[in-house]
TrEMBL record:
Enzyme active site: D8, D10
Family affiliation: Belongs to the HAD-like hydrolase superfamily. CbbY/CbbZ/Gph/YieH family.
Residues given in the record as substrate binding sites: 8-10, 24, 43-48, 51, 76, 114-118, 145
Cofactor(s) demanded: Mg(2+)
Record's protein name: Beta-phosphoglucomutase
Source organism per UniProt: Paenibacillus typhae
Site description Important for catalytic activity and assists the phosphoryl transfer reaction to Asp8 by balancing charge and orienting the reacting groups, residues in chain: S114, K145
């Protein structure tokens, strides 16, 4: 049975993945190395400090003290939050609101499962918090994706069993975490990058009719 839909936030619900990349690239630039969009794929879904570790490794920087790392992560986050200031409800990705509306009308419960500590701020800025029954984010979980913790906690709060949950993810680490949680995963984005997902589409907009027909047995239109 299809009990619940669990959504990643950055890059699935809101177009904030590009802001993370801009801020990380700026930090790399200040540290004196280039950071490509391809390299950035590895950072998606990964916690802030682990992302920094991956970035530093990409730049060959191995000699920083923990306090220096904290400072760098804070700077990135300040730039990122500056970019978040520009967010409006128009930054909700295409298809999201209608998809959530259809899920609710079929009695499917919904959650956000994000590694981000900025998730509450983002949800408030784009005004879609009321569309989710549950929000689990980087402020309440300990182990980041690809650990399944964030997904299992969302399912627990929704009162759903993992095999009744579908996860929607744009990051390889998130796809992996959802699989480890025993859930089915829909990859949003590049099929090659998200090869372990059960199905991959370019956006939720594209998914809606296909998904509803084959998994809930409803013709959405
Ligand atoms: C999400 C994003 C990552 C980000 C992480 C932590 O998973 O996909 O790119 O690093 O959240 O976000 P934060 O807003 O707490 O730095
Ligand atoms: Mg994401």
């Amino acid at each position: 049975p299809f009990e619940a839909a669990i959504f990643d936030l950055d890059g699935v619900i809101v177009d904030t993945a590009k802001f993370h990349y801009q801020a990380w690239r700026r930090l790399a630039g200040e540290l004196g190395f280039a950071f490509s969009e391809e390299q950035n794929e590895q950072l998606k879904g990964v916690s802030r400090m682990e992302s920094l570790e991956l970035l530093l490794r990409a730049g060959g920087i191995t000699d920083l003290m923990p306090e220096q790392k904290e400072t760098l992560a804070s700077r990135k986050n300040e730039w990122y939050k500056g970019l978040l200031e520009t967010l409006t409800p128009y930054d909700v990705l295409p298809g999201v609101c209608s998809f959530l509306g259809l899920l609710h009308s079929r009695g499917v419960r919904t959650a956000i499962a994000s590694a981000s500590k900025n998730a509450p701020l983002i949800l408030e800025k784009v005004r879609i918090r009321p569309l989710f029954d549950v929000v689990v984010d980087g402020n309440s979980i300990v182990r980041a994706k690809p650990d399944p913790e964030v997904f299992l906690e969302a399912a627990r709060q929704l009162g759903a069993s993992p095999d009744g949950c579908y996860v929607f993810e744009d990051a390889a680490a998130g796809v992996e975490g959802a699989i480890r949680a025993g859930m089915r995963v829909i990859g949003i984005g590049d099929g090659q990058m998200l090869a372990r997902a059960h199905l991959t589409v370019n956006s939720l907009e594209q998914l809606e009719p296909v998904f509803l027909l084959s998994h809930i047995g409803v013709n959405g239109h």
